[in-house]
Specification:
6 helices, single chain, mainly alpha
Length: 168
């Protein structure tokens, strides 16, 4: 198995493992939570996208990626992390704007993934190494698995109030 094949295998295996964890543990837990709590937990996965500037260190250490592609990855991830933080803060305050920011996070993440896929199609490159390998193999799949969960929560709970229920 080549290093590139190994990287692809590990990333795929991580997606499968995270999907099983989501199905067996996260989905039942989300069903028991309020709308805001469920969205907050799912947004937290996106906060750590601020680690993407590490791509410039990976590039310096030999990861073959253009400056333009690295910059696009970094900007997309930093914007996603900022939107996630705003969504969490707003949802914790029970502001309806938190739901809008959650949808904005979904849209931004889909665009970010599309840009990344376009970059891979335009300039295929060798698999990542070093810490960048860990980021792409173990962290990126959490984003990929959390995204449909967030869409699911936003859709099925669209009529549920974001405020805490009044104490009786």
């Amino acid at each position: 198995m080549t290093p590139d094949q190994l990287a692809n295998f590990v990333q795929f295996a991580s997606i499968v493992v995270y999907a099983l964890i989501a199905i067996w543990y996260v989905v039942p837990w989300l069903r028991k939570q309020g709308r805001a709590e469920a969205l907050i937990v799912l947004a937290w996965f996106h906060i750590f996208r601020y680690s993407s500037p590490y791509i410039f260190l990976a590039q310096r250490d030999g990861y073959p990626i253009s400056d333009v592609a690295a910059f696009e990855i970094m900007i997309g991830d930093l914007i996603g992390a900022a939107i996630a933080l705003a969504a969490i803060i707003l949802l914790r305050r029970r502001a309806r704007l938190g739901v809008i920011f959650s949808w904005l996070l979904v849209i931004e993440t889909i665009i970010d993934f599309a840009v990344g896929a376009r970059e891979r199609a335009i300039a295929p490159r060798a698999g990542p190494t070093g810490v960048w390998w860990l980021i792409l193999s173990f962290f990126a799949p959490t984003i990929l698995v959390s995204l449909p969960l967030m869409v699911w929560q936003l859709y099925i709970r669209r009529h549920e109030p974001i405020q805490k229920p009044a104490l009786q």
